């Protein structure tokens, strides 16, 4: 299992306890849904990249949102790594045999969805074709170059009507915000890939995105 040299600074950083990637905060210990996501780094035509999906606008949860592949940890899964790989295969059609798991990050509490999420970092040693394998859940699949995520012109702060705000990215014809953007922001910093960007560039959550998010809350 060999990761490329450009991934080593990130892997070194996440191995350090309290090294900048926060763990679970104020999360209830029982009665929550546990999920896992696959943060899959690869080497694409445009250099280092990460795999993202756009969820179907018809889902009951996270409708229309860009995300890492992943989902709930089933009783038949052998922990978060198995769940992340299984969900990624079901959602994008990737071949898990070409994926090397490199690190399992601390659990993160996501209050809007009531989930405790375990991010799993992996290297796409042998890339396979990916596509929306389950069109009921996935609208699009994209390999997003790390350079595009780090590009200052693609970065902004998104405001939610609740008063919350957070980092966001405009990449691959998607607005990446919320949990996924938060994790990407931290990974860019820890990997040494982040570039200075205008944190005063701010925007409200688009009306359609907000409508889908509020629909989830109402259910």
Number of alpha- plus pi-helical segments: 5
Instruction: List low-pLDDT spans.
Output: none
CATH superfamily: Nucleoside Triphosphate Pyrophosphohydrolase
- Residues in helix, %: 10-25%
Morphology call: globular
Q: Please summarize the sheet with the most strands.
A: 8 strands, mixed
Roughly what is the average pLDDT, rounded to an integer?
Answer: 89
Q: The CATH topology is what?
A: Nucleoside Triphosphate Pyrophosphohydrolase
Tell me the number of structural domains: 1
Name of the CATH class: Alpha Beta
Described by its quaternary structure, the protein is single chain
CATH architecture: Alpha-Beta Complex
CA radius of gyration is 16 Å
Would you count the extended β strands for me? 12
Can you offer a commentary on this structure?
It is a single chain. The protein is of the alpha+beta class and 219 residues long. The chain has one domain: Nucleoside Triphosphate Pyrophosphohydrolase (Alpha-Beta Complex). The chain has helices at residues 8-15, 79-92, 146-150, 178-191, 207-218; strands at 33-44, 47-55, 66-67, 70-72, 99-104, 108-110, 115-124, 138-145, 155-159, 165-171, 174-176, 202-204. Strands 1, 2, 3, 4, 5, 6, 7 and 8 form an 8-stranded mixed sheet that branches. Helix 1 (8-15) packs across helix 4 (178-191). It is globular, with a radius of gyration of 16 Å.
């Amino acid at each position: 299992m060999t990761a490329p040299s450009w991934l080593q600074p990130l892997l070194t950083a996440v191995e350090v306890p309290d090294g900048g990637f926060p763990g679970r905060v104020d999360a209830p210990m029982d009665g929550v849904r546990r999920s896992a996501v696959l943060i899959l780094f690869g080497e694409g035509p445009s250099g280092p990249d990460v795999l993202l999906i756009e969820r179907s606008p018809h889902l009951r949860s996270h409708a229309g949102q860009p995300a890492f592949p992943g989902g709930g940890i089933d009783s038949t899964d052998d922990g978060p790594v198995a769940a992340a790989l299984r969900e990624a295969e079901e959602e994008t059609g990737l071949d898990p045999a070409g994926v090397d798991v490199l690190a399992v990050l601390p659990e993160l509490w996501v209050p809007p969805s009531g989930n405790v999420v375990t991010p799993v970092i992996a290297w796409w040693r042998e890339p396979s074709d990916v596509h929306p394998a389950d069109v009921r859940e996935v609208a699009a699949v994209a390999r997003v170059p790390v350079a595009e995520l780090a590009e200052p012109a693609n970065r902004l702060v998104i405001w939610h009507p609740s008063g919350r705000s957070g980092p966001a990215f405009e990449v691959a014809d998607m607005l990446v915000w919320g949990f996924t953007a938060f994790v990407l922001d931290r990974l860019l910093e820890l990997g040494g890939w982040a570039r200075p960007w205008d944190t005063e560039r701010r925007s409200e959550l688009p009306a359609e995105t907000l409508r889908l998010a509020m629909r989830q809350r109402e259910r």
